[in-house]
């Protein structure tokens, strides 16, 4: 079968890989009909998230059809259409039963304290082959995959594998209450999805910060208020927009590959921090293999954290879903302490949130489809990776799979979700 294989930092390839086989009674083999590229995959290629095995199949977002199940999988049959949660969980331990699937005691071969297991991730995260492949082995298949009604398309369901559950979780972490003013840092796919999730959870005003023009336009399509950090200092802008108080809640949907502003007042204000940011980046990503302007690690790893703490109101809450790997040690802790902030963070408990999101999509409350700006066949996957990495115009969420009437396939971008839009 064809799969996207990680060979090293700056080196991924589309190549032939062995077909997966049932290895355990709770396994299923799924024929992947749609997969997608996540910002997390970019960390692996840029070098900001270490520890992958050479030869690992990448990808942790998938929709597909069950081909085969082990004897312990009593709830699925070959032919069932499912969305696969990015994280893997046993369903038996106390953490899974409490809905903390990302902290499952049993899924990680490294033991109960070894941390979250997800497809196509570092050895420390289980080292499982991923979903950017024609077929995948899904462990704990009696727990993970969520069956899809016919009324939910592949294009909708693929965004329920990781992006929407993570955004929903981020809005929960941020403790959004009715009427709250919420800032979302990062207008990538996760940040875009967070707009709809924050709104559905009651946000009154939603302000999105990024430096990429077309991503901000996509956020504006969803009727978020937008702030371009290359044109304004985002902290100053948000204080001005909120009567000097700051926002009640922040969702950090950026993570370790945060960028510094390239121009404008925020760039000037941060000029003196240049060396500090360079040092942070080189400590966090000691090995980097950029290829021109592709696979370049973020040049200000702690900047989203700093801005979040500065723009939130006193006694506010910050929900962090942008990924920070274990080697990140920089956080503006004292400033957060002095403001009595609440900080919540972590890997999404995908399985906990997916069923309700499937219902919302089936019921018409949520339509994730417009976030998909390009629909590429596996054939073009390497170019799709590079273009997404460079955040080129129009490339917000890259879905891999057969192009059909369910994907936009061409140039269209659109407003996700709850509000409709102009495109
Ligand atoms: N917690 C989880 O379980 C989970 C799940 C999925 C994704 N993630 C993480 O969420 C993050 C976003 O994922 P994505 O797919 O949207 O990635 P992405 O790389 O497409 O989006 C990141 C966005 O942040 C913007 N950005 C960069 N620096 C910024 C700054 N200083 N301030 C504001 N915005 C800035 C970028 O321009 C980009 O649009 C990644 O870190 C990813 O690893 C976490
Ligand atoms: Zn992801
Ligand atoms: Zn468990």
Automatic annotation (TrEMBL):
Single annotated GO MF: zinc ion binding
Classification via SUPFAM superfamilies = GroES-like, NAD(P)-binding Rossmann-fold domains
InterPro entries, from UniProt?
ADH-like_C, ADH-like_N, ADH_Zn_CS, ER, GroES-like_sf, NAD(P)-bd_dom_sf
A Pfam family hit = ADH_zinc_N
Biased composition (Low complexity) is annotated at 413-423
Q: Which cofactor does it need?
A: Zn(2+)
Q: Where is the composition biased (Basic and acidic residues)?
A: 272-292
The UniProt family comment states: Belongs to the zinc-containing alcohol dehydrogenase family.
The protein's name in its UniProt record: Alcohol dehydrogenase catalytic domain-containing protein
Upper taxonomic lineage: Bacteria, Bacillati, Actinomycetota, Actinomycetes, Kitasatosporales
